[in-house]
Amino acid sequence: MYKVKINMRIHFLNILNSTLIILVFILYSLTSYSAEISVVKGKKAMIVKAQGVEQGLTYNVLDKNDRIKGLVKILKIKKDKALGQIVKGSIKKGFRLELDNSFSDFKDDFKEDNRNSFFIGKTIRSYLGLAMSSDLPTSPMLYGADYLYPFEKVITLRAGAMYWALSNNNISYSLIEISGGPFYSHNLTPKWELEVGVRIGFSKYSFSSSGTSITIISSGAGMYNINKKMQVGGEFRYPYFLSDVDFKGFYLMGVFSYKL
User: Are residues 160 and 221 in the same domain?
Assistant: First the structure.
């Protein structure tokens, strides 16, 4: 009877040990082989078994020896797959993401800015619109172009020129403006952005009189991101001339941007 009890105890311990080994193996498998890099192409990486990752977060990438080899930011998630942007390092197929949920309560503090990155790059922009004023017999077409230089993630420095002209009953009206200034861009949605800024420049005009004037232009625009290279939208500008200029009005323009 005593021997039977010992055998039962040994059998129970063997079952317990086997269960613990299986649990450890399962946990190891989940942590070691989940979120695995399956495809690497340029600066993009496809990730499978991505149930534990979150869009917008950046993860360490480990090789098969658990050494950190780089960083990947998650751009998109679809079912159990994810698309990542390689932030730095040499990433290869078979590497895996290091998933650590210990900071899950503070994930919003560690999440990177998920703002659309269109403005993180030098950009050229063209304008086509109308000069609107009761001082003019009609609204002439205006043309313009800008060069946008990224200063911060949401701040761009812009410089460019604008021109419009009108001839009516042998009377000519025209204006050439060269101006620039800082602009702030706010992401309303992943596709729509709001821009506000102030430009300062010089205007050469010909109305009832001719001359030049320092000009301060307040501006606001709504832009739609077609893709990572192109934007379209509309812009409103209100010019204020420091000299006595016979023009009280504003500009309405269609906008097209192309990132270089």
Answer: yes
pTM for this entry? 0.56
Structural domain range at position 42: 34-110
Reported as a single tens digit per residue, the pLDDT across 87-109 is 888 888 888 888 654 444 444 45
Q: Which amino acid is at 157?
A: L
Q: What's the total number of domains in the chain?
A: 2
Closest CA to 253 of 129, 126, 125, 124: 129
Tokens 């299986």 identify what position? 22
CA distance linking residue 251 with residue 242, whole number of Å: 18
Question: CB–CB of 147/119 below 8 Å?
Answer: no
Distance CA 150, CA 8 (A): 74
Q: Tokens for 252?
A: 């309405």
CATH of the domain at 39: 2.40.30.20
82 in Cβ contact with 53 (< 8 Å): yes
pLDDT higher for 145 or 98? Answer: 145
* Residue 159 shares a structural domain with residue 206: yes
